[in-house]
Amino acid sequence: MTEPFGNETVEDVSEAFDLLRNARRRGVLYTLERNERMSVGTLASRIAAWQSEESERAPDAGNVETSLVHSHLPKLDASDVVEYDRDEQAVELADAASDLDPLLECTREREAGFAAVSGLQTSNV
């Protein structure tokens, strides 16, 4: 049974938090916010660059791409947050992504280091 929570249900809110729980999924959304359609390879490179700035262990862009293709992009696509074209290896935001904007505003403040890599202006962060 789901309970109402504003205009949404607790189930909807829980799904939103689940989507944003992973840093790479947040990285996808941050990057695509400013860059319309993007290749998975370019997206993986930007996320790897961000994660290497945030951690002593720099992830390999190839490993990031593998995790995006096999886990994160399908999950975001299934939730109608992104449109992931597997054949063309391209991804872009879907209309439903705007539902996550209030939550992303909170995370963006704490992950300001991603702004330089994703193309976001730091004054907007």
Question: What does this 3D model show about the protein?
Answer:
It is a single chain. 57% of the residues lie in helices and 11% in strands. The protein contains 6 helices and 5 strands, in the order E-E-H-H-E-H-H-E-E-H-H. The protein has a single domain (8-117), classed as Arc Repressor Mutant, subunit A (Orthogonal Bundle), CATH 1.10.10. The strands form 2 sheets. It has a 3-stranded antiparallel β-sheet. Helix 2 packs across helix 3 and helix 3 packs across helix 4 (61-78).
Distance between the termini: 37 Å
Based on helices, strands and strand pairing, what is the structural class? mainly alpha
Q: In DSSP terms, counting alpha (H) and pi (I) runs of 4 or more, how many helices?
A: 6
How much of the sequence is in beta strands?
A: 5-15%
CATH domain fold name? Arc Repressor Mutant, subunit A
Mean pLDDT: 83
Q: Which segments are poorly predicted (pLDDT under 50) over 5 or more consecutive residues?
A: 1-5, 120-125
Following the backbone from N to C, one meets helices and strands in this order, namely EEHHEHHEEHH
Biggest pleated-sheet summary: 3 strands, antiparallel
User: Helicity level, as a percent range?
Assistant: 55-70%
Rg, Cα atoms, Å: 14 Å
What's the structural blueprint in terms of helices and strands?
Elements: E1 4-5, E2 8-9, H1 10-20, H2 23-34, E3 38-39, H3 40-54, H4 61-78, E4 82-85, E5 90-93, H5 101-110, H6 114-118
Antiparallel strand pairs: 1-2, 3-5, 4-5
Helix pairs in contact: 2-3, 3-4
Offer a concise description of the structure.
By secondary structure, the chain is mainly α. The protein has helices at residues 10-20, 23-34, 40-54, 61-78, 101-110, 114-118, and strands spanning 4-5, 8-9, 38-39, 82-85, 90-93.
